[in-house]
């Protein structure tokens, strides 16, 4: 597979280059670096441009500079963009006194790396040559996803395009002189219109379900796959219904606007820069060494790690079509920066955002989850939390006493209690027993699960106990390792998810309904297929939603998924976009195999354990942003996990039935 | 693997009566006491032979708790057979049978074959429902009846197979239009079409699609 070789080549060559730049200490545990033999045969670098940068934020100081290259191997052309290794000696600061805020961790920088993407995977290149500021390009992939804008600090866009044209067919789009279509021999206009499989207005008649022309191969549908894993260009057949994808291009214009704003912002800075006598140069400050397994790394000396500075003005529209790269989980030293001297989290939005994109390191979860779940208020102080812990522990004991004190004689006359207790006893021994924390006979943690659930069924007697609750509680207890704390975290979670367990299933039905609406706007062919196959009740997603994907992922991954969902950062209903993202990944199979309700349900069930979490989160992010207000409008007010709109009894009185 | 027919089964009954364990014993021939509780529905499949015909059973194992009923009901759609399970050591699971039966009658097709199973018969010392009561209930409601143990595997094979045999017999008698999949039956490759299906025709339409 020559792409792999090429990847190795570019990677290693770049590594070698970075060593020459004098940063041998930056030996991060980047798994993508391969130590295999350097394969030079047949590959030729046909274009090199230094100081091509990505701007993860609006601030020029946070740009990531790198080297853009075009590499030809046999008849194939590849593009790579590799960020420079951060090197304190290699670059000058802006001289504007913002150096301390401009550090981007090495690991974040590397997330943007473009490794040997083949031009067969590239649909188009959009060129921007603003009169003031730097030229940049946006590379759009066949999948409709795009890389962040690449800024040419030293110019060279024209040369870049000219070089491409020498090796692969490149034509100017008929509808936009700044869009260049790659490998588009037939119909440039149509080609430029086909992009994401997004909303389509042209209905597909029942008799002719939409098939492959608009399908995304589930393995290739997302940018988060490593680029060299991608397959070759897929033939696309023109379909008028695809023209609606022009909406996507309109979305792109938002990116353009962002890029323009960014550019003028940058220009302002450059102005200052010029006045202060500095030469324009990449300004990446020394990024500290972050090792993937820093816990085992005792030699790490650089502790003055500064996280990506929370920036309330950062324009997230930039992630519109691709979903941001996932970040490494929040670490302890980074976490402490969010706390003021008395322990308040002053900028909870930034914290939630940080967790949304990277999750939390496991050892930190016990602390952070209490905030995410709402047991602790973000603006509480250390002292207040300490006090709360004491009083809540007592309160828990009081509620627990309510059932603990029921004698055998009393229980005989208390059917509802016996039933609940019986159900819980039966279920806790059927919950996560394959996880070592809960395995084995007479495991005390199983007994704690039991006590918490029974106490909860008294604390919230109207809702009681329902199957699925033990699935939600088990990872919480696993993280908290404390009965009372776990109880209150579970209470906080159930404030949002309680309606999932209503006997009338209204909470579930409203979410399934919202999901069907979201699929309708985000993937109308799939929606039409479900309609025709009589699957619009979306019961096949029931388990996903009821217990927040708990059964679909391993413990490690479900904890990550949950903390991302619990940030409620982009949407309170991000989980529904996750559902859409998963369905979209498998849409080709679902539609192609003409799955009926039974087959679909079985198929979805069997996806358990095989869903790629990070990729799905990125897809969901992109979908959520693309859907925007239209997406939010699909979700009726009060749909879980929204907090109840009014106080008072959340749960209609429910007949306990132990059927 | 090719089959003459595919039958869809559904297993219903109170939570904790051993539905998932019966399924696992039948499909995998093992007893797993620490199986995770079922959320929604799970699946199993196995080939059996009736009258020298390979028959594939696709079995849907449902969640037992009442709160899931409104969802579970949708799974009755197109089931040819149902195993209605209670636990002989818990009287209330027997008392709830009528309610389950009502659900089944209301949401399944009228010709669905229902097998009543009194599970956990290995726990005879804790028995709370007599064999006679089970028999009586089955007789009153026109069900096939068996006591079984998912733990020891006693009667598990028999329960699934005799249900299939009953369905097969109904096909032979022309009770079903097997070309109509809403009866929970699909005709596979190599199947001998039932009396209501033309010899030349539709016998291969659904082969292998649910493997």
Q: How would you describe this structure to a colleague?
A:
The complex is a heterodimer of chains A (659) and B (211). Helix content of chain A is 42%, strand content 9%. Chain A is an alpha+beta fold and 659 residues long. The relative contact order of chain A is 0.09. Chain B has 211 residues and is of the alpha/beta class. Chain B is built from six helices and seven strands. In chain B, strands 1, 2, 3, 4, 5, 6 and 7 form a seven-stranded mixed β-sheet that branches. Chain B is globular. The model of chain B is unreliable at 193-211 (pLDDT under 50). At the A-B interface, helix 11, helix 17 and helix 21 of A face strand 2 and helix 2 of B. Chain B: InterPro entries: P-loop_NTPase, Rab_GTPases_membrane_traffic, Small_GTP-bd, Small_GTPase. Chain B: Keywords: GTP-binding, Lipoprotein, Membrane, Nucleotide-binding, Prenylation. Chain B: It is found in: Endomembrane system.
């Amino acid at each position: 597979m020559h792409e792999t070789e090429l990847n190795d080549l570019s990677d290693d060559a770049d590594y070698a280059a970075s060593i020459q730049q004098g940063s041998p200490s930056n030996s991060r545990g980047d798994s993508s670096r391969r130590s295999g033999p350097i394969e030079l045969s047949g590959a030729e670098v046909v274009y090199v441009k230094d100081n091509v940068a990505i701007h993860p934020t609006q601030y020029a100081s946070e740009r990531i500079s790198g080297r853009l290259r075009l590499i030809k191997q046999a008849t194939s052309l590849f593009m790579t963009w590799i960020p420079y290794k951060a090197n304190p000696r290699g670059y000058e600061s802006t001289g504007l006194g913002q150096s301390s805020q401009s550090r981007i961790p090495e690991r974040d920088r590397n997330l943007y790396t473009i490794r040997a993407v083949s031009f067969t995977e590239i649909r188009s290149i959009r060129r921007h040559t603003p009169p003031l500021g730097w030229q940049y390009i946006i590379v759009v992939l066949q999948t409709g996803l795009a890389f962040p804008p690449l800024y040419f600090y030293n110019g060279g866009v024209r040369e870049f395009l000219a070089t491409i044209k020498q090796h692969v067919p490149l034509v100017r789009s008929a509808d936009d002189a700044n869009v260049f279509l790659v490998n588009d021999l037939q119909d440039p206009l149509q080609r430029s219109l086909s992009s994401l499989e997004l909303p389509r207005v042209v209905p597909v008649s029942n008799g002719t379900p939409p098939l492959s022309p608009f399908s995304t191969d589930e393995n290739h549908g997302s940018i988060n796959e490593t680029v060299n894993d991608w397959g070759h260009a897929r033939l696309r057949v023109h379909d008028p219904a695809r023209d609606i994808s022009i909406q996507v291009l309109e979305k792109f214009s938002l990116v353009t606007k962002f890029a323009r704003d960014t550019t003028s912002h940058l220009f302002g800075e450059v102005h200052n820069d010029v006045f202060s006598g500095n030469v324009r140069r990449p300004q990446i400050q020394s990024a500290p060494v972050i090792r993937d397994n820093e816990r085992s790394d005792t030699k790490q000396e650089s502790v003055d790690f500064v996280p990506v500075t929370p920036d309330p003005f950062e324009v997230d529209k930039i992630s519109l079509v691709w979903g941001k790269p996932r970040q490494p989980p929040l670490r302890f030293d980074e976490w402490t920066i969010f706390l003021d001297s008395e322990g308040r989290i002053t900028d909870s939005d930034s914290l939630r955002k940080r967790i949304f994109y990277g999750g939390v390191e496991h050892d930190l979860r016990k602390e952070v989850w209490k905030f995410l779940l709402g047991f602790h208020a973000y603006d509480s102080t250390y002292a207040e939390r300490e006090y709360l812990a004491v009083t809540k522990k007592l309160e828990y004991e009081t509620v627990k006493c309510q059932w603990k004190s029921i004698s055998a004689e009393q229980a005989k006359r208390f059917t509802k209690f016996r039933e609940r207790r019986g159900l819980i006893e039966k279920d806790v021994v059927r919950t996560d027993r394959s996880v070592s924390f809960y395995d084995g006979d007479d495991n005390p943690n199983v007994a704690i699960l039991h006590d918490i659930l029974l106490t909860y069924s008294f604390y919230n007697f109207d809702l009681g106990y329902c199957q699925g609750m033990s699935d939600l509680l088990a990872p919480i207890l696993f993280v908290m390792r404390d009965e009372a704390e776990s109880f209150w975290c579970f209470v906080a979670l159930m404030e949002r998810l309680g309606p999932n367990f209503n006997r009338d299933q209204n909470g579930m039905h409203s979410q399934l309904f919202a999901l069907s609406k979201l699929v309708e706007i985000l993937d109308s062919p799939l929606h039409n297929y479900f309609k025709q196959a009589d699957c619009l009740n979306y019961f096949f997603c029931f388990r996903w939603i009821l217990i927040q994907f708990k059964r679909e992922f391993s413990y490690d991954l479900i904890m990550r998924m949950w903390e991302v969902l619990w940030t409620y950062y982009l949407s309170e209903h991000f989980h529904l976009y996750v559902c859409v993202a998963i369905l979209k990944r498998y849409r080709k199979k679902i539609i192609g195999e003409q799955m009926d309700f039974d087959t679909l349900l079985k198929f979805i069930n069997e996806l358990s354990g095989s869903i790629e979490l990070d990729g799905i989160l990125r897809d969901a992010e992109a979908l959520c942003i693309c859907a925007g207000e239209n997406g939010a409008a699909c979700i009726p007010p009060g749909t879980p996990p929204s907090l109840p709109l009014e106080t008072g009894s959340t749960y209609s009185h429910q007949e306990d039935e132990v059927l | 693997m090719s089959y003459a027919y595919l039958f869809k089964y559904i297993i219903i009954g109170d939570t904790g009566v051993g539905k998932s364990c019966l399924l696992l014993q039948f499909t995998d021939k093992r007893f797993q006491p620490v199986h995770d509780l079922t959320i929604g529905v799970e699946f199993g499949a196995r080939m059996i032979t009736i009258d020298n015909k390979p028959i594939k059973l696709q079995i849907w194992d449902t969640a037992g708790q009442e709160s899931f009923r409104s969802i579970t009901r949708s799974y009755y759609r197109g089931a040819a057979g149902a195993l209605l399970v209670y636990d002989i050591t818990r009287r209330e699971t027997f008392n709830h049978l009528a309610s389950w039966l009502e659900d089944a009658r209301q949401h399944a097709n009228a010709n669905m074959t229902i097998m009543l199973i009194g599970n956990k018969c290995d726990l005879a010392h804790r028995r709370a429902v007599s064999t006679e009561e089970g028999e009586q209930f089955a007789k009153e409601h026109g069900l096939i009846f068996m006591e079984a143990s998912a733990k020891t595997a006693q009667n598990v094979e028999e329960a699934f197979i005799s249900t299939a045999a009953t369905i097969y017999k109904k096909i032979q008698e022309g009770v079903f239009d097997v070309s109509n999949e809403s009866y929970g039956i699909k005709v596979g490759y190599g199947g001998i079409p039932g009396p209501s299906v033309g010899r030349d025709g539709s016998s291969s339409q659904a082969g292998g699609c649910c493997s």
